[in-house]
Amino acid sequence: AAMYQGPILADADVTSLSFSHDGTVLALGSGIWHDEAMESSVSVQLWSLTMQHFQFKLEGDAGSGCAQAVAFSPVSERLVAVAESGKCFVWNLLNRECLQFFAAHAVSCKDIVHRFFVLFSPNGALLATGSRDTKDGLRLWCSKTWNLLGALGDRPIAAALLYHHSQAATC
Prior knowledge:
about 170 residues; four-stranded antiparallel beta sheet; 12 strands; disordered C terminus
């Protein structure tokens, strides 16, 4: 079995993680602290599991807070992170460009760390976001326009799990 040498060097505590759909890349969500502004911003590090090394880092704007949830699109060409501010960031992984950012959920209290989840539909057409700490319900977004399509319910969402049956898990 291959051994990874050295620590995983996140900017802060790892607050979320996601594997690419082919299992070759691990995204670690955290935050970068800005002393002068006394606030943090989203940071996502991508690690190659096949090459066993750090690839690159993606960053959100100052004040967005730590990455509370991260997800790869089905063919892993995009990565999405939801920050503790409720803002959602979408990056193109081929050129590392931030394609879009939008307010996915309204955060009323900054004294607590809000918990979010984010998932792509198996075909990549939809993005689902939810929060355990807001009453926005499950929100569905079009992954072409990033427009809100609607919400299911008006209660907090404790957790979400996506399993695509056509891909067998192996150990």
